[in-house]
Write a structure and sequence with these properties.
The complex is a heterodimer of chains A (113) and B (114). Helices cover 0% and strands 56% of the residues of chain A. In chain A, strands 2, 4, 5, 9, 10 and 11 form a 6-stranded mixed β-sheet that branches. A 5-stranded antiparallel β-sheet of chain A has the order 1-3-8-7-6, with no helix packed on it. The radius of gyration of chain A is 13 Å and the shape is globular. Classes of the chains: A mainly beta (113), B mainly beta (114).
Chain lengths: 113, 114
């Protein structure tokens, strides 16, 4: 049972346009959400996070939106750049579990020239 | 070092053999995590150390898997009687151990069991 779901295995976006990656979760105990970016042959790299007490967090070109009632979050990248081509993992932590991060399966983002 | 390092980067072994995978966390990080990433999946939690002790080993799939961190720094993940289904990338991460601290990942060890 996937507690964190990324239903789009891949996404292609024109350079300069907005990339929107979506994520849904099922566990109501999740209170902290993260996005990681992964290049081939490298480990995941932390990108941006959001606490459940917020509905938006912005860092440069990256913005994460959280809709708790829908158990949905999204990552917006504006403008998209070639170096953004990677696999993006949505992840979550639960209130009573300080340790483990639960990851989705990832979405492969292709930025087209 | 500057980041989390893992050795070896690749390990090929035969079914039934024993393997050890090593993780060197970021200096000063008290928390260390092991994850496993199978093809087409996201990283899956295995075990978490706070200092020398395993605070949560609920993700270890069975008793063939064991991990240690004897001095609170380097950790070794040990797999006995390897099976073909153990083939995956094993990722190690470390953090300073606060509730919402970022986990920094190493490049992983790709384990292939023939």
């Amino acid at each position: 049972d996937q507690q964190v779901k990324q239903n789009s295995p891949s996404l292609s976006v024109q350079e300069g346009r907005i990339s929107i990656l979506n994520c849904d979760y099922t566990n109501s105990m999740f209170d902290y959400f993260l996005w990681y970016k992964k290049y081939p042959a490298e480990g995941p790299t932390f990108l941006i996070s959001i606490s459940s007490i917020k509905d938006k967090n912005e860092d440069g070109r990256f913005t994460v939106f959280l809709n708790k009632s829908a158990k949905h979050l999204s990552l917006h990248i504006v403008p998209s750049q070639p170096g953004d081509s990677a696999v993006y993992f949505c992840a979550a932590k639960a209130i009573n579990r300080d340790d483990k991060i639960i990851f989705g399966k990832g979405t492969r983002l292709h930025i087209l020239p | 070092g500057a980041g989390v390092s893992q050795t070896p980067s690749n390990k090929v072994t035969e079914k039934g053999k024993y393997v050890e995978l090593r993780c060197d966390p970021i200096s000063g990080h008290t928390a260390l995590y092991w994850y496993r990433q199978s093809l087409g999946q996201g990283p899956e939690f295995l075990i978490y150390f706070q200092g020398t002790g395993a605070a949560d080993d609920s993700g270890l799939p069975n008793d063939r898997f064991f991990a240690v961190r004897p001095e609170g720094s380097v950790s070794t993940l040990k797999i006995q009687r390897t099976e073909r289904g153990d083939s995956a990338v094993y990722l190690c991460a470390s953090s300073s151990g606060t509730r919402v601290d970022t986990q920094y990942f190493g490049p992983g060890t790709r384990l292939t069991v023939l």
